[in-house]
Specification:
The chain has nine helices and ten strands. By secondary structure, it is an alpha/beta fold. α7 runs parallel beside α8. Bound molecules: manganese (II) ion.
Length: 296
């Protein structure tokens, strides 16, 4: 019955919300202004996806849920406040798409998503696009920064490392041992070089292995080369072009998404809104993946 109503009249499939917080950064601040820049850039994103042959807004009911509450003075207090707020958003079946903010905020959306999807034992499967692994135990005595969301999520049982794939990782690193945690827990690592060679095949195989199991998608814009996404806080050369990364996202066709985030857009360092515009298209690609899965 509901399906016969226009998408906008149905319960919300995806609540999209901003998390204007950058208290977790190690280098350049400013990602707190990401949500408003991405909202602005998203005005020029249209609804029909050519490659997936799907009208995203016809299939999905979407809502901008505004911004989550944050405290610029506290990382953990912000993550707790965002989790608590996101936990109760919209319909219980509504999935959450968080727009950062720095990558520390992924933990809050992952926790809220894990709870809303029925606290799956062993944690959520995770698709992770990033130049960095973000599994640093602590920096300057702080355990909740943007370098640490996935070590915390794995420790807390919210993410299943054996069902986690990190795509776009590249160096230089502080030490070879920076990779140890992810490797020891069984995370699949696809470096930027490997992804450029056969990333689509690796993602396709990952989706096939998941089958009906849902996955959360976390997308750090610094997976993309700073030439294409200059507006970010910890840029690393050797990343994907816009076209490459959009192709990799499309290679996830068939995935069942539990939730997602797009983070680390820093508008003050952007050039011609290229980074915000790309981020808004990444949001569209994520929604299109869900639309095509639902339409299938
Ligand atoms: Mn990151």
């Amino acid at each position: 019955m509901l399906e016969s109503l226009p998408a906008a009249s149905r319960p919300v499939d995806w609540a999209i919300f901003g998390v204007p917080f950058d208290g977790g950064v190690t280098y350049r601040p400013g990602a707190r202004f990401g949500p408003r820049a991405i909202r602005e850039a998203s005005q020029y994103v249209k609804r029909y996806h050519i490659e997936h042959d799907v009208d995203v807004c016809e299939v999905l009911s979407l809502a901008d849920a505004g911004d989550a509450p944050v405290s610029p003075y506290g990382i953990k207090s912000t993550l707790d406040a965002v989790t608590q707020w996101a936990r109760k958003l919209a319909d219980p079946s509504t999935r959450l798409l968080a727009v950062g903010g720095d990558h520390s905020i992924a933990y809050a959306n992952i926790r809220a998503t894990w709870e809303r999807r029925g606290k799956p034992a062993g944690g959520l499967a995770l698709v992770h696009f990033d130049a960095h692994l973000d599994t640093v135990d602590s920096l300057w005595g702080e355990k909740w920064g943007h370098a640490s969301p996935f070590i915390r999520a794995i420790e807390d049982g919210l993410v299943d490392p054996k069902a986690m794939i990190s795509v776009g990782v590249r160096g230089p690193l502080n030490a070879k041992s920076d990779l140890d945690f992810a490797k020891s827990r069984g995370v699949s690592l696809v470096s930027a070089d490997e992804a450029r060679r056969d990333g689509a095949a690796a993602l396709h195989a990952f989706v096939k292995k998941l089958g009906m199991r849902e996955a959360y998608l976390t997308f750090d814009i610094d997976a993309v080369d700073p030439v294409y996404a200059p507006g970010t806080g910890t840029p690393c050369p050797g990343g994907f072009t816009s076209s490459e990364v959009l192709g990799l996202l499309r290679a996830l066709r068939g995935v069942h998404l539990s939730g997602a985030d797009v983070v680390e857009v820093l508008p003050d360092r952007d050039v011609g809104d290229a980074t915000s515009l790309l981020a808004s298209h990444v949001l569209f690609e994520i929604l299109a993946l869900d639309a095509v899965a639902k339409a299938a």
